[in-house]
Amino acid sequence: MQPTPTRKTLGAFAGVFTPTLLTILGVIMYLRLPWVIGNGGLLGGLLVIGLALGITTATGLALSSIATNTRLGAGGPYAIISRSLGLEVGGSVGVPLFVSQALAVAMYIFGFREGWLWIFPDHPALLVDLLTFALVFGIAYVSAEFAFKIQYVIMGVIALSIVLILGSDKGWSGGQDILLWSDWRGAPETGFAGTNFWQVFAVFFPAATGIMAGANMSGDLTNPRRAIPWGTLGAIAVSTVVYVLLAIWCARAGTAEELTSSYTFLIDQSLWGPGVLAGLLGATLSSALSSLVGAPRILVALVKDEVVPDFGRISKLSDKGEPRRALIASALLVLAALLLRDLNAIAPLLSMFFLIAYCVINLVVLVESSLGLQSYRPTLSLPRVVPLLGAIGCIFAMFIVNPTVSLIAVGVVGGLYAMILRRGVGASDDSRSGVFSAVAEWAAAKATEFEAVNPRAWKPNLLVPVRDTADVRGAFQLLQELVRPEGSIKLLGVAADSDVLDVSSRMAALTREFRKRRVFTTWSVLDSTDRVSGIVAGLQALRSAFFRPNVLFVEVGPEQDDADLVRLWAESRRLHVGLALLADHPKAGLGKRSILHLWIPAPLLREPVPTALTAGGMHLAVLTALRLQRSWGAQLRIYGLIDEAAHHDAAREWLRDLADRARFPKGIALEVLQGSLEEALTRAPQSDLDLLALPPVADPAFVRQTVVLSRSACLFLGDSGQESALA
């Protein structure tokens, strides 16, 4: 049974503006803003505030832009990231984001408790925590709509507290000169040993976070496209005005010593201290409520996308569309954190996870806007510099606040990404294919500007003709070993008109099997009754493709017509395509895949190595031998043939020169044998696969005879002219 859809009942003001504003106007505003101004003065303090709010403003604009470009479901930032960059990236960011959101509830409750105990010092701390948690959980359990109605009351209390502060003539009487710049005195706990701009910034920056509080409710919003931009940007604008006004008031209300010596300066100098203290308690309570309402919605989205297992059907919604099972799961995590009694060790890590999410949101907008995708049509369009600055700012803030914890957070996200990628997740309608296509098109356009072929960039792109997909099964593993990790396979089906549909379905299935094994594979089917004509037509049609095949792979079986083989041999040379003929042994097959032989004819050993390899068409044979030796972990023996015993030392020196120029790995055996190829094949130890260069004149009889003489499978290879074993 599908979960009941969430009832979309929240608008921009209730669902986004209120929770976002109340999260930004939090504890740091009440307890640390005077300290910031006391350390930096008005100008230094405004610079700290401006930099912090500038980073989050850029992120808020990026969030708003992407929200106007897509129909967001539940999950907020996780939904945005996963729809753009895929479930793997979304999950690796979304899982720690959910955990951070839940654990943040415990930290806000701890903050509420500190304020409460300042009024009632005799109350048991654990009891205050548990009762506060019970209150927050009870409100959230009723409904998100009820929780945000409660926040209206809290917003009224916070607004009153700000009025009580700004209404005090302490900051407007004119008796105190404005503190424009201070000497970065430090903090009371360090004996005012001094500080600097960046340390003060690190203390203040968490106040500017929390801009996702409204976006977390994306699944409950009646119109996310409108609500998220208006609510988020409106909350940032109002909070900026409040911070600037309070900064000016602080600069006029106290000296540097007064502002930095007491963290309760705003409470002490206001018109009515208890009213400001109520605002402080309300801010912590509101932040805890927003986090506890948002966390289960991220969890439900993660479960629905199969990123997180659905234990106990936690993704099931109530009749009113409330994620109560996920809320209970989140609450258990919060309760465990409360019982630990101290989250100071991991608190910085939680902030880093939020910043990583903000950074990725900026990157989503930057990537999609830079690639000119047709699907990227936000109604709120931004210059690319905005998300660029937002992403840089988030990374900058992470490593300024705590570089060690930032590296740990990045490592956690990277580990989760690898784990989710390995486990696999369901398909999603993300825009990665469009992104990758745009990047590929850009790369192709740039690559075609350079017409010369670079042998160092050569990789095997095989064209594999297929009449019956069952024929490919025998060579399935070998094809993988020939192209991995950077090569590709193009399956070309050749079928009569009546068989095209059947062959197409089987080709698609075979392609999926290759792709599961991380082999880049595509397929196409030609309607042709003549197999060779179809293959030649395919080669000709694909010559202009960017990822064009450079090696034609053909199996030589008992049913292979020699005339067809001769035609393919000739056409591959005419079209400058490499040719690989696999003649399998009827009994041994590829054996144990442990021994490889590469044969070099006697005439080539009389020429310098570069000349010999080109003249003998040996480049592809050498490259293939090295690829298979690495892939199989096999023993590779290279046999150089000589006509007379007197040539033995020169032949061995030639082989050493080849090994040096081609950079053979250690352990490859270099052998010299006297006699013809036919004689040497019968005398040499049996291998699992013999590799030979194709003779210049097509000779199917030679191919079949070699298999008999060698008593093993043989792979005959002809160069296209683009390879170089010495590059």
Walk me through this protein's architecture:
- The protein has helices at 12-24, 27-31, 33-67, 77-85, 87-119, 125-142, 144-166, 197-204, 224-253, 256-261, 265-269, 273-304, 324-340, 347-370, 385-401, 403-423, 432-447, 469-473, 476-483, 500-516, 531-542, 562-574, 609-615, 619-632, 648-661, 677-683, 700-710; strands at 461-466, 488-495, 520-527, 551-555, 578-583, 595-600, 635-642, 669-674, 689-693, 713-718.
- By secondary structure, the chain is α/β, with parallel strands linked by helices.
- The protein has 3 domains: 13-155 and 169-261 and 285-423, Amino acid/polyamine transporter I; 452-583, Rossmann fold, CATH 3.40.50.620; 584-727, Rossmann fold, CATH 3.40.50.
- Helix 25 links the parallel strand 7 (635-642) and strand 8 (669-674).
- Helix 3 runs parallel beside helix 14 and helix 15 crosses helix 16.
- It starts with 11 loop residues before the first helix and ends in a 9-residue tail after the last strand.
- The model is unreliable at 1-6 (pLDDT under 50).
Alpha-beta classification: alpha/beta
Total of domains: 3
Task: Say how many strands there are.
Answer: 10
Distance between the termini: 60 Å
The major β-sheet equals: 10 strands, mixed
CATH topology-level fold name of the largest domain: Amino acid/polyamine transporter I
CATH architecture of the largest domain: Up-down Bundle
What portion of residues belong to β-strands?
5-15%
Poorly predicted runs are: 1-6
Count, helices: 27
Give the C-alpha Rg: 35 Å
Write down the overall geometry: elongated
- What percent of the residues sit in helical stretches (DSSP H or I)? 55-70%
